[in-house]
Every structure is written in structure tokens, then in C-alpha cells.
Design a protein that fits this description.
This protein is α+β, with helices and mostly antiparallel strands and about 400 residues long. Helix 3 packs antiparallel against helix 5, helix 5 packs parallel to helix 7 and helix 6 runs parallel beside helix 8.
Length: about 400
């Protein structure tokens, strides 16, 4: 009996070990008709290229590319033409890092990307998109035709204008009380497009609720984070779908942690407690953020060297900090960077006098936990007990709190 149990235990441990060591290899190959595309970025969807040191670069030679993506977990990825990214407008190809072969064709038009995958999860994603597109693409096409018609009229009207006249024309066209006969129709098209988009999102969520798959889990993680980062309402249907179906699926998958962080970030409003999390201090050691609190009022400033608005906001706080630091005002800044040297250069140039911490390559997922995953920065004004006083207040609003409390 003892021997049989020992053998069974050995077998189970071997099985677990083989599962833990399981690798996924996704063979990616494809073409592009854009002669300007010489390189592609492969990155996990939802990650920010500006903060990630592990972005995979794939060369394009004579319009062709190939890469073998090897991962321990099936994750959702984006493949992006670098030249489009650098120009500020791009259309990625989406895929999962499962055992499969994926063929991708990029066109010169940003809207044209063909993806053919053999993996189960990639096929589910494609089926969802195909079903949704079949319903909503004709509606968007009709709206775009109306928009193109108005824009062609406007192009003819400004054709012979100089730059100053064109600038005045555009400002008047988009003004609230525009007298241009096409202005109200153009704005109405924008509102209709937004309504159709919201209906499309609802239809997508319902499709994924009826067909549970890893694409559904990835979509929840990304859409919840985006809604919170842009202060948009979350979809109750999606929250119920996660609670009733997805929460029990794909146990241990890292996307559950991302969703958990986003759901917690919903409560980061004035009057509620601010969250605690791991940060890297000046010595590179991991400590709890709360262990660094020394002030009566503390500004948690989330920023990045590449975020212009973040740095302008921080510089406006400097004279405020100097004025109130001896009365109990503390600033703890956390920089979201790909390289530590970028943070140090920005600190030296801008002259930040407070404690500066580093979030390198999203190691501690701090931006996700604060509900600003898709933003450069953000901030929270809290008291010594961790109660939120204000969310990303400017210098003027911050000083009102300081005068009142200090």
C-alpha cells in the first residue's frame, strides 16, 4: 500500500511539473505592402511601448517577416508597424501566444489588416469580430460616406484660402454657435457614431458572455482599465459577466489580477481610503508605499519623463511644496519609465525637490492599481491616514486643501 501511494504521488508530481513547464510557441509570419514598414513591434496588448523594455522587434525584409513567439502562458498580443506608430496612427494585428501558426497581411491602408490563425483562442477572437463587424460595419460605412461628403465640400470651400483664413474657417466651423450650414450636420454625425460605437461595445460584451473564451477575459481587462482611466462608465453587463462566468475560468491567469486592480481602482474617489502597494525606493528595495508617509497631507504624483503634461503639472507643485513642506506637506513622486536614467535626467532638468520613486517596466503594476493604466500620469492628494482628499488636483486646488488643513 505504501509503495502504491508513493508511486501515485510521484506520478502526480511529475504531471504537475510537466504542466508547469509547458511552453507555447506561436509561429508568426506575414507580409506588408507598405514599403515604409521596415520593422514591427510585438507587445502584450494593454502594455505601453514607452514604458516597456521587453518590446519585441521583428525586422521586415522585402515586405516579409517571421517570428517564433515562445511563452509559458497564453497572452493577448499586438503586432504594430513601427513607422505607423512613430507617425501617431496605427492599426495593430491581434493574436494569442498559443500553439499555432498565424499569417498576417498588412496593407498600406491602416484599416486593412488580415489575420488568419489556427489556434483556438485566436479563432474565437476572429469569430467574435466577424459577427460584430457583419452587423455594425454597414452602419459605420454609411456614416463615413456622409462625413466624407461634407468634408469634400469643406475642402472645396477652403481651397483658395490662405493659412490664416483657413484657421479662422476651421475655428468657426467647430464653434458651438457656428453659422456654417454643414457644421451642425457634421457634429450630429459625430454623436451618431458615438452611439453606434457604444451599441457595438454592448453587442461585443454580450457575444463574449455567451461564448466564454480567453479573448473575453482579455477584453474585460483592457476595457475596464480604459473606462476607469478615462473616467467613463463601466458596463454593468460586463461586470456581471465577469462575476457570474469569467471569474471561475482560467484560474491563475494573470489577467484576473489586472481585472481585480481595475475593480479596486473604481473606489479611488474622495472620502475613500487610498490603496497601499509595493514601490521601489531610492536604494532599489521594495517597500510598502505607506511606510514612506511622513506628512500630514501627501501628494502621490504619478508621472513619466515622456509625459509633458505630467511634468508641467509637477513643476507647478514645486513652489507649493517649498512653501508648505515645513508645515506638513509631502510629495511622493513615482515615475513610470523604461530606463531609470530617463527619470534622473527629468528630475535634474525640472528640479523636483521631493522623494522620487521608480516604476520600471510596470514591475509593480502601479498604474493599473491606480486606474490610470493607459495614461501618462495621475495623482492623489491624501491625508496622513490615507483618506483621499482629491484626485489629481492642480496646484490651485491643492493649496486650498493645504490652507484649510495646515
Amino acid at each position: 500500500m505504501v509503495k502504491r501511494i508513493t508511486l501515485s504521488l510521484f506520478f502526480m508530481l511529475s504531471l504537475v511539473g510537466s504542466m508547469m513547464a509547458q511552453k507555447y510557441t506561436c509561429h508568426i509570419e506575414g507580409t506588408t505592402t507598405d514599403s515604409e514598414t521596415k520593422e514591427l513591434y510585438l507587445i502584450e496588448s494593454g502594455a505601453d511601448i514607452r514604458t516597456q523594455a521587453n518590446v519585441i522587434s521583428i525586422p521586415v525584409v522585402d515586405g516579409k517577416f517571421s517570428y517564433a513567439l515562445k511563452k509559458d502562458t497564453i497572452l493577448y498580443y499586438e503586432l504594430i508597424p513601427v513607422n505607423q506608430y512613430e507617425n501617431g496612427s496605427w492599426r495593430p494585428a491581434y493574436l494569442f501566444s498559443e500553439n499555432q501558426k498565424v499569417s498576417i497581411a498588412f496593407g498600406t491602408n491602416h484599416d486593412k489588416v488580415d489575420v488568419i490563425g489556427t489556434g483556438k483562442e485566436t479563432k474565437m477572437m476572429q469569430q467574435c469580430n466577424a459577427d460584430i463587424d457583419a452587423v455594425f460595419n454597414p452602419v459605420f460605412d454609411a456614416l463615413n460616406q456622409k462625413r466624407d461628403s461634407i468634408e469634400n465640400i469643406l475642402k472645396r470651400e477652403i481651397k483658395d484660402m490662405d493659412n490664416e483664413q483657413r484657421r479662422a474657417y476651421v475655428e468657426e466651423f467647430y464653434s458651438e454657435n457656428s453659422t456654417n450650414p454643414h457644421s451642425s450636420a457634421y457634429k450630429q454625425l459625430g454623436r451618431e457614431s458615438e452611439e453606434v460605437f457604444m451599441k457595438m461595445r454592448t453587442a461585443t460584451v454580450m457575444w463574449l458572455d455567451e461564448h466564454p473564451c480567453l479573448y473575453g477575459l482579455a477584453d474585460m481587462r483592457l476595457s475596464l482599465a480604459s473606462s476607469i482611466a478615462h473616467s467613463a462608465p463601466t458596463t454593468p453587463y460586463q461586470l456581471n459577466s465577469y462575476k457570474n462566468k469569467y471569474k471561475a475560468l482560467y484560474g491563475g491567469h494573470p489577467y484576473h489580477e489586472g481585472i481585480k486592480n481595475s475593480l479596486s481602482a473604481i473606489d479611488l474617489i474622495p472620502g475613500n481610503k487610498y490603496i497601499d502597494y509595493d514601490v521601489c525606493n531610492a536604494d532599489g528595495k521594495t517597500v510598502k508605499l505607506s511606510s514612506l508617509y511622513t506628512g500630514k497631507i501627501i501628494y502621490i504624483d504619478l508621472w513619466a519623463s515622456w509625459c509633458g503634461p505630467c511634468r508641467r503639472h509637477a513643476k507647478e507643485l514645486v513652489p507649493l511644496y517649498e512653501k508648505y513642506k515645513d508645515k506638513g506637506f509631502q510629495v511622493i513622486a513615482i515615475a513610470r519609465e523604461q530606463k531609470a536614467e530617463n527619470m534622473h535626467k527629468a528630475i535634474k532638468k525640472d528640479g523636483y525637490p521631493w522623494l522620487c520613486l521608480l516604476e520600471l517596466n510596470d514591475k509593480n503594476q502601479i498604474w493599473w492599481k491606480n486606474g490610470v493604466s493607459t495614461a501618462g500620469g495621475g495623482g492623489f492628494l491624501i491625508d496622513e491616514k490615507g483618506t483621499i482628499l482629491a484626485v489629481y488636483p492642480d496646484a490651485e486646488e491643492t493649496e486650498r486643501f493645504l490652507k484649510e488643513r495646515l
